[in-house]
Amino acid sequence: MNSVGPELLTRLLDEHGGALVLYARQWCRTPEDVVQEALLSLVKQQPVPENVVGWLYRVVRNGAISVSRSALRRTRREAMCAQRGELWFQAAPEDRLDADAATAALGRLPIEQRETIVARLWGGLTFEEIAELTGSSTSSVHRWYQTGLSALRERLGVACPNRNAAKQAKEV
Length: 172
What we know:
single chain, 172 residues, mainly alpha, Arc Repressor Mutant, subunit A, 2 domains, globular
């Protein structure tokens, strides 16, 4: 494949766009922009990467982390400047994002667990692809996935469906 055409770009966006945005959201507040930049970078790639989806996840991850670092630097600078003068605006309570319990619980997981769960469940990546993406071993990625799911179940008060079925079978 020599270049990325509109058909491939449309298919990638349709099949992976939502998951890529969710994946980028772990690090930054502008995930749509990061995904758009990744797709534009893909169009410029010569030759096209062999594993396009894996390449996109890598570029989105790197871009989101970069955007996050830039935002952190900007926030620190603005806070330093704000200490010199009075605030012009008061933050309104309704401006805050009202997230459901699952989103909050996912957000409280360590980044390794959260990244692995999002990439696996919403991105459909294999443990091997996630390991390559994060520069970790497959066993570490699997452990993060299992530990993260267990923590989510505990925080949300949801038992593992397989365990419940096994308990019910024993009771009968």
